[in-house]
Amino acid sequence: MATTFQAGGPGRERQVQAMFSAIAPRYDLNNTLLSFGLHHRWKRAAIDAAALKPGDRLLDLCAGTGDLAFLAARRVGGNGLVIASDLNRAMLEVGRRRAGRLGLDQRVRFIQGHAESIQLADRSVDAVTVAFGIRNVDHPDRAFAEIFRVLIPGGRLVCLEFSRPVSGWLRRCYGFYSSTLLPLIGTTVARDRTGVYRYLPASIREFPDQARLAAMIEAAGFSPVRYTNLAGGIVAIHVGVRPVDTTSASPTSPPPRGRGKEEPSVLIGSRSS
I want to staple 225 with a disulfide (CB 3.0 to 4.6 A). Which of 84, 98, 141, 240 is the partner? Predict the structure, then answer.
């Protein structure tokens, strides 16, 4: 299936969501096989970069089946809150079941939502994470602007995404693997007929490299922005900070901490224009 990163629109979005719905039951197994288990290490590194503290509030965008959300929930503790948001209902249902098995269903709230229109109040979360999902968003610049809006001043965006290997030999090896072996293994294990494992490597090739993604994040207002390459640049973690604004008051006062189950109703659905 042909894909073009710049081609937005509801048609492409529906197609991508249909593909992810089809592979949701075997998504976690395939991630482990296709990354040789390294995705667990990469996700732990992303949560480390978020510098979470007990009681913090975190939004995990494009949360999928909840890997980052569960890691974050253990960091923020019982007085914190993790909201796992994804557009795909099938992925969220898998995540909810996993949360129950892990005993984290009281710490992680799953919501279906769009990264380009986040249903959270302004300046309401301490950190936002997004792992291997921003390249599937039609307009990443709009998503970064929304992330900036919901973060408190001083809050962090952590974006974990596939990127461009830094050395030529690794680019050639990874190019062969991602275009040949990855679709074969992924399609076989997931029994997929939608073409998602051909779409995924194409989406990686067309996505901005480390420097261009950093520039996109900076353009949304984040400063400073830095990135760290993992696995030779096959994956990169970008961290951006919403600057502390000492000249203007917050348009929406941050909700109080430590309110447990009442916090979601405080956070969700209160937006300023």
Answer: 240
* Residue whose C-alpha is closest to residue 148's, from 219, 63, 77, 215: 219
Other CB atoms within 10 Å distance of the CB of residue 19: 21
The residue type of 267 is L
- Write phi, then psi, for 60 (nearest 5 degrees): -105, 105
Residues 150-201 pLDDT 10s: 999 999 999 999 999 999 999 999 888 888 888 787 778 767 777 777 888 8
* pTM for this predicted structure: 0.84
Residue 195: CB atoms within 10 A of its CB come to 17
CA 179 to chain centre: 23
Whether domain 10-244 has CATH 3.90.850.10: the reply is no
CA 261 centroid distance within chain: 24
In the chain, what are the helix, strand and coil shares in percent, each to the nearest 5?
50, 20, 35
Residue 186 DSSP symbol: H
Contacts 24+ apart (CB under 8 A), 192-201: 192/19, 192/22, 192/23, 193/22, 194/18, 194/19, 194/22, 194/23, 195/1, 195/19, 196/19, 196/20, 196/22, 196/23, 198/1, 199/1, 199/3, 199/16, 199/19
Nearest of 127, 133, 162 to residue 254 by alpha carbon = 127
Question: What is the phi/psi pair of residue 207, to 5°?
Answer: -80, 150
